[in-house]
Design goal:
Strand content: 15-25%
Helix content: 25-40%
Largest sheet: 5 strands, mixed
Bound molecules: tetrahydrodeoxyuridine
Order of helices and strands: HEEHEHEEH
Oligomer: single chain
Strand order of the largest sheet: 2-1-3-4-5
Number of helices: 4
């Protein structure tokens, strides 16, 4: 069974609803389809000790790895509104995605509107650092 883009996007938006972001007020959800067609979701989780906060993408990637997923086939990231929307992944999360991506990995970014945009990892993280 394949997961449609619309369902992946809805999963990211749904995950966003559970974000714990009382300090920034910026909630983010992420949803991944892995190489076996399995879905993994995550949201950002902040902390009173600010640097301990985790991004939504990191949580979704950790869930994928724990379930045995090896490759991000598609990842949807839902976050932002107004001037800071949609939520394109932060620099650290670009590197995290890169670890489990290939040239065909689709990175879909959106806010809470119906619009979304697709990127490849090479667009977001050109000349990336990786160990082969
Ligand atoms: N955040 C994410 O979850 N993913 C990103 O790619 C960008 C930023 C979170 C971290 C923090 O909880 C909040 O958004 C504001 O930076």
């Amino acid at each position: 069974m394949t997961i449609a883009d619309e369902d992946l996007i809805n999963a990211a938006k749904e995950a966003r609803r559970n974000a714990y972001s009382p300090y920034s007020g910026y909630s983010v959800g992420a949803a991944i389809v892995d190489d076996r067609g399995h879905l993994h979701v995550g949201c950002n989780v902040e902390n009173a000790a600010y640097p301990l906060g985790n991004c939504a993408e990191a949580a979704a990637i950790a869930a994928m790895v724990q379930q045995g997923g090896k490759l991000i086939v598609r990842i949807a990231i839902a976050g932002g509104s107004g001037a800071i929307a949609p939520c394109t992944p932060c620099g650290g999360c670009r590197q995290r995605i890169n670890e489990f991506a290939n040239a065909d990995t689709a990175i879909l970014v959106m806010d809470d509107s119906e619009d979304w945009r697709e990127y490849a990892i090479d667009e977001l993280l050109p000349a990336s650092f990786h160990l082969d």
